[in-house]
Design brief:
Layout lengths: L7 H14 L1 E5 L5 H11 L3 E5 L24 H12 L4 E5 L5 H7 L5 E4 L4 H14 L2 E8 L2 E7 L23 H20 L8 E5 L4 E5 L12
Parallel strand pairs: 1-2, 1-4, 2-3, 4-5
Antiparallel strand pairs: 5-6, 6-7, 7-8
Helix pairs in contact: 2-6
Bound molecules: zinc ion.
Zinc ion binds next to loops.
């Protein structure tokens, strides 16, 4: 408990126990997945699932702090497992070196409490959202495009899902200042921790971040009646 002593006044022993018991699946170990995984491991989330089908490339290293030169051309899941394993050896880590799709989701999502989606493409976002709705799991979605970023909390049936208002499925984010990934990734981890410890106040489900103006706006998105996510 000494490791987590600075959490105590905020979340108490019960909150820390909830984190220790929690099983969180993090999809993607890139710019957003790196800070998310560090923050969840540091907080003492007991089991972390890590999905990524990529290998480490030199162009990743301006923002993907899990990885380093020693892991170039190696699977990102291996790099993530070693880095997080050294950082907090008490955490159970399960890695999946494959693309997150409906088949993989079917096999692994039921065993997790919550999903944090840290990918850079809409096809995987839509797949993650669909399985969050299907398996009734809370999903923390996040993304960055240029100087804008967002975090969306998806609680099926309670908030809007990622697909409630329609999305394009062919866009891949390419432009990103490395430091901004730390803001969004840590915000995803923070919202995940708030969900797991019961300190989310329920007043918002979407956070828009403007990096140029250095401002943040929040709102609650109601589920769209026409979307299949509303039960
Ligand atoms: Zn929806």
């Amino acid at each position: 408990m000494e490791r987590y002593a600075r959490h105590q006044e905020l979340i108490g022993a019960a909150g820390q126990t909830a984190l220790a018991k929690a099983r969180v699946l993090v999809i993607g170990t890139g710019g957003l997945g790196s800070p998310t995984l560090f923050a969840l491991a540091a907080a003492g989330v007991g089991t972390l699932g890590i999905v990524d089908d990529d290998v480490v490339e030199i162009s990743n290293l301006n923002r993907q702090l899990l990885h380093s030169d020693a892991f170039i051309n190696q699977p990102k899941t291996d790099s993530a497992k070693q880095t997080i394993g050294r950082f907090n050896p008490d955490i159970q880590l399960k890695t999946y070196s494959q693309r997150f799709d409906a088949d993989l989701a079917e096999q692994i999502v039921p065993e997790y409490d919550m999903l944090v989606d840290c990918v850079d493409n809409y096809a995987t976002r839509i797949a993650a959202n669909a399985c969050a709705v299907k398996y009734n799991k809370t999903l923390i979605e996040g993304g960055i495009e240029g100087m804008s970023g967002f975090v969306q909390i998806v609680i099926p049936g309670k908030t809007a899902c990622f697909n409630c208002f329609g999305v394009e499925d062919n866009e891949i984010y390419r432009q990103v200042l490395g430091a901004s990934t730390g803001i969004i990734g840590n915000l995803q981890a923070l919202e995940c921790i708030k969900q797991l410890t019961g300190i989310w106040d329920g007043s918002y489900s979407y956070i828009a971040v403007d990096f140029r103006q250095c401002s943040m706006e929040r709102m609650f998105l109601e589920p769209n009646d026409d979307c299949g996510c509303k039960k």
